[in-house]
Amino acid sequence: MNNAKLPRLTLIAASLTLLSGLALAADTVTIAYQTGIDPTKIPQADGAYEKATGSQINWRKFESGSEVIAAVASGDVVIGNLGSSPLAAAASRGLPIVTFLVADEIGDAEALVVRNGSKISKPQDLIGKKVAVPYVSTTHYSLLASLKHWKVDPTKVNVLNLRPSEITAAWQRGDIDAAYVWDPALGKIKASGKVLTSSAQVSKWGAPTYDIWIVRKDFADAHPEFVNKFAKVSLDAIAGYVANPKAFIANKDNIDKISRLTGAAPADVVLGLQGNRFLTQKDQIALLQKPFVQAVANTAAFLKSQGKVDSLQADYSPYVSNQFVKAAK
């Protein structure tokens, strides 16, 4: 399972990588996003980020946080959407990035699903079974945390490293017994499976996970106004949902836009929105200080105990900042 580690040379090289001329000019900015379901998909679909920043944005879709980290490390992407687990792994290896926004605190929108007929009715039944998960993702972290809580030896579970699309295909072929994943794959496998646990429960066990936005430090230093405006558009979208979730969900246009960007069925979009906790500007200003720094440190320590990172940072505060959500007036 050590092949989950990001290439060390790639991350070391990242600190020496200069942004392209286009990115330095902030005329065209490449941003990585994933299929997580959250209100910020609405301004993305509407072109609101481009309008607010005055920049052309090249949106690139990725299937996992480890892929986003690799793209950010290479300099191909300057802002990326990923989970708190791949963030902790990247920060532990010194990637020059800053967490500047929280998309959501993950709840039931990520879950461990077991196949109908797999004879898995309790956690101990996972021993000897094939369980798929994208390595170094929030679901990987949640799976390992769940096994620890259940006192199930992870070495006795056949954990397979598959991307979400690969999980869907493997499930349809009958190649795997269970999977811990997010939408749209989650909705597809739930149709013929049952949820054994979700990240909402894992959070209660002391292992919360988040979907967050990171930015390369060199880009943030050169273009703080771009990051401020990106944060404001995102926070406005989140605030619109938090103010009236029922009205947001009842708006078919909102659901359709998120469905098109994520590939999730409209019904799964609704469940995804209801399954996560979204934080207002005030909540984010408070979280993106000691609480989130500690959460990253705890996640990194757990990953090290599982052999996913070689060493830890003495201090993770340089990888977290609330300055951009504060500036989003």
TrEMBL record:
It is found in: Periplasm. Coiled coil: none annotated. SUPFAM superfamilies: Periplasmic binding protein-like II. GO terms for biological process: alkanesulfonate transmembrane transport. One of its GO terms (cellular component) is periplasmic space. It comes from the Bacteria. Keywords: Signal. Residues 1-25 form the signal peptide. Residues 28-245 form the Solute-binding protein family 3/N-terminal domain. InterPro entries: Peri-bd_TauA (IPR010068), Solute-binding_3/MltF_N (IPR001638), SsuA/THI5 (IPR015168). Belongs to the bacterial solute-binding protein SsuA/TauA family. PANTHER family: ALIPHATIC SULFONATES-BINDING PROTEIN-RELATED, TAURINE-BINDING PERIPLASMIC PROTEIN. This is Taurine ABC transporter substrate-binding protein. It comes from Aquitalea palustris. The lineage of its organism: Bacteria, Pseudomonadati, Pseudomonadota, Betaproteobacteria, Neisseriales.
